[in-house]
Amino acid sequence: MNRDEVLHVVWFKRDLRVVDHGALAQAGEAARGGGGRILGVYFVEPTVTAAEDFAGRHWAVAREALKDLRADLGRRGVTLAVRTGEATELLERLRARCGRMHLWSHEETGNDATYARDRAVGRWARERGVPWTEVWQNGVVRRLRSRDGWAANWEERVRGPLAVVAAALPGETTVTARAIPTERELGLASDECPGRQAGTRVEAERMLATFLAYRGKNYSREMSSPITAVEACSRLSVALAYGVISSREVAHAAWARAEELAEAKQVGRGEDFRIGSVRAFLARLHWRCHFTQKLEDEPRIEREAFLPELDELRAGPWTDERAARLEAWCTGRTGYPFVDACMRALRATGWINFRMRAMLVSFASYDLWLPWRPSGLQLARLFTDYEPGIHWPQVQMQSGTTGINTLRMYAPVKQSLDQDPRGVFIRRWVPELAEVDEAFIHEPWRMPTAAQAAAGCKVGRDYPKPVVDHAEAVRLARGKFMELKRRAEHRAGARKVFLRHGSRKRPGTQIEDPRWFETGTARTEGGAGIAPASEQLELGM
Hints:
It contains 23 helices and 7 strands. The protein has 3 domains: 7-137, HUPs (Rossmann fold, 3-Layer(aba) Sandwich); 201-297, Alpha Horseshoe (Serine Threonine Protein Phosphatase 5, Tetratricopeptide repeat), CATH 1.25.40; 305-525, DNA Cyclobutane Dipyrimidine Photolyase, subunit A, domain 3. It has a 5-stranded parallel sheet, with helices on both faces. By secondary structure, it is of the alpha/beta class. It has helices at residues 22-34, 46-49, 56-75, 87-98, 112-128, 150-159, 201-215, 219-222, 229-232, 237-241, 247-266, 275-297, 320-330, 337-349, 354-367, 372-382, 388-399, 412-419, 424-429, 449-455, 470-485, 488-501, 516-519; strands spanning 7-11, 37-44, 80-84, 101-106, 132-135, 407-410, 522-525. The relative contact order is 0.11.
């Protein structure tokens, strides 16, 4: 390594790709123009892997993505050095070895651990005189002063040309790549997820191509049921969460497909593909950034309610009863078959569609009256597409702690009847109920003794009785929220939340409705009703 040359270090985080990688593209231009060398680095940080929202399944996905990234960089002449340790320590070792250094990376909206890490790296860079160039990669705006005009800014950013990385780059060759550690080598707990998606670029490209070609033709109509959503949804959420594919790449492909469908319709060459489904999908890409912007603007909402007083509603000691309820919910043993089937499917695959995620949060928050943070952490560890910037604002929205969203209390039996009328999904994931008659599959506690015997399923022994009475639980929950919302100080606080985080879409299309904190509305969700532009909790696209 020539100490007279600048080493351009491209630090990869949740942007594990070479296509549309602005930081890599700019580093390449700087290296070619100034005679420097490029080195890619990825840090396996103990503070991140030990964080309470991290799980083995997350690393399994990241490890696959890193293998692909290493190969793609290698074809361009660049080494990807993977090191285990804290970022500031590893960067300092590299600086001491190479001398002159320029650090490049994308901006990242992450969790508490990565936010603290980035601030530490910023201090390190300033103290050492190391230039650190952070490049935006989507519609999220750092140091945003106002939400006014945000939607137009998103459109301008995302529609702009993709970053082009040169086919050959001046790579630094004296640094060894080293093996990418396994989950076991990192000391991560066993985390079986046999049905999870791969974290590879090939898988991401395949999912995008097949979704826009045929799988997504009825996206708007089929995204709600866990039966049809597996195929009808894009299934790009894992790739997007780890940056294996960029949201701009996906948006450009979707815009091109929408134009193709519109042109075909004009000349009478219609396709069996609804253009409305592409437009609905593009709306979800917009809302990905909309929700991430909330955490970017106010990192505290990972741990505190948007409206802090709403945390008081479910405050109190963590009793054995609460622990038992959380355990029943996260293991799929609540006694509500559809809730349990969704949770068991999630545990086995790492993915489930948005409406079912919203129902799971609703059940934990209103039926079981659990604080949003413990249940949110359980889901964070289960979602292979966990992205903090979307996850925490959505968990809060679905649990009623934003102060500006209509309370949506999902009726699990009604959802079951609407989304899985014949009990196909239930029987697959709750095998104890496989032989239960269709008349009782949604409410097995109503089975007569003879029917239980015929099905080989005694309620209370082979399958649990309902842990709570849904109607009574949501009645109590609604009453507690309505009592709080009558306070003048609550309405004032909600207005502040809306001004900082609310959508500026016209009434009727926005998720956050500024009238909510004045009217005090609440609704029990049946079959139709999550706000149409909110197809993200997981990112379950």
